[in-house]
Amino acid sequence: MAKSVTKAIGILTAGGDCPGLNAAIRSIGKAALGTYDIQVIGIAEGFHGLINDQTKVLGDADFSGILTRGGTILGSSREKPFAKKDTDPLAEHKVEMVLENYKNLHLDCLVCIGGNGTQTAAYKLSQLDINVLGLPKTIDNDLAESDFTFGFMSAVNVTTEAIDRLHTTAHSHSRIMVLETMGHKAGWLALYSGIAGGGDVILLPEIPYSPEIIAEHLINRARKGKEFSIVVVAEGARSVKEAEQRKKDKAAGKKKKKTSGPSAGYQVAAHIEKTTGLETRVTVLGYLPRGGTPSPFDRQLATGLGAEAVRLLVKGEYNRMVCLKKGVITSVPLEKVAGKTKKVPPDHALIAAGRLVGTCFGD
Ligand code: F6P
After folding, report:
1. 197: Cβ below 6 Å to ligand 1?
2. Are residues 275 and 215 in contact, defined by beta-carbon separation less than 8 angstroms?
């Protein structure tokens, strides 16, 4: 086996957890330590552990039996080394603490497994002479340069099963069932599971919806004898009116208000019941798609991405994010990912297919 340029790495998992994280840790650990004798140091709870030097040297036993386990054996947090929180006395020292601990641990590279925020932080660290490698993870699938992130297909499976279950109770009671999914900025999860589950209405953050168009669509279905309907709503979906108000506020430099009040699913349901008189119920799936064992797709994707990360480590190629791109596992420079969100393009093939089979997208 070729000798590795990299002798020691730190691994951290940051941001919202998802199925597949442990599969990725296992792949990196077995390939790095098992095949190339690279020391692997686990960092607890994302960047929080790197700031506070909460680390542990990992051995073969740590990577065994975790392929199918949900969550992350390292723990995670949304700690951001570059975030300036006035209330946090450590704020301006966090980056120095990261640099110091990285040096004291004698790391050659920091492997950051996470979503948008994590990859952006990793890129900023790479500008400060820390070698980093990113692995894309999130149930939102909203990372640039990636066809799919691991976590996403597992979440689609759980959400689609929920839609299937809602179909039977909607049919029994001739009701409108509204299912709210995660996905603040991007509606990939709502789109894929909505189409897979046969949602009659699918509302995405990318397509501001008209409550009137939704009501008309449901009434037309009822008139044709369709006794029930399924409405899939991403938590970030907004009405046209709300979206316009947000645009005005943004243009006026107003800070984005912390959304209080009923969530998107409840807002849509209230309008449906008020304007159509059709009995409506809401289910918020919340964190369920973030839990449990990874799907086979996510297990193999996480394994492939982890192995590709180690190939780069062996060659000493840093400051990239490994990814599945156009069906191939490859890597891209981190600056092509940092600060970006991959949103659903309005002309996406699944939207076009949905429209052809009569799905309403609220517009
Ligand atoms: O980033 C993934 C995600 O699950 C989003 O879909 C969701 O809005 C967010 O995390 C929830 O964040 P937290 O786990 O911090 O409550």
Report:
1. no
2. yes
Contacts of 217 (CB under 8 A, 6+ apart): 200, 201, 360
The reply to whether domains 8-150+294-336 and 155-290 share a CATH topology is yes
Annotation: CATH topology of 8-150+294-336: Rossmann fold (3.40.50)
Structural contact between residues 176 and 279, judged by C-beta atoms closer than 8 angstroms: yes
- For 118-151, what is each residue's pLDDT tens digit? 999 999 999 998 999 999 999 999 999 999 999 9
Assign domain 155-290 to its CATH superfamily. Phosphofructokinase domain (3.40.50.460)
* AA identity, residue 120: T
CB 363 within 8 A of CB 207: yes
Q: Is the CB of 184 under 6 A from ligand 1?
A: yes
pLDDT tens string 77-93: 999 999 877 777 777 79
Burial 273-285 (b: 16+ CB within 10 A, else e): beebebebebbbb
Residues 316 and 314: their CA atoms lie apart, in Å, by 5
- What sign has the CA pseudo-torsion 17, 22, 23, 28? positive
Distances (CA, A) of 93 to 7, 76, 78, 79, 206: 28, 21, 17, 13, 37
Q: Is the CB of 185 under 6 A from ligand 1?
A: no
Q: With a cut of 70, say whether residue 262 has pLDDT above it.
A: yes
Atom 13, ligand 1: residue with shortest CA distance: 16
The pTM is what? 0.96
| Measured distance CA(50)–CA(68) in Å, rounded | 26
Query: Is 96 within 8 Å of 130 (Cβ atoms)?
Result: no
Name which residue sits closest to atom 7 of ligand 1, judged by CA: 182
For ligand 1, whether the C-beta of 138 sits within 6 Å is: yes
- Domain boundaries defined on the chain: 8-150+294-336, 155-290
Mutate to test the pocket of ligand 1, among 77, 113, 137, 139 (most ligand atoms within 8 A of CB): 139
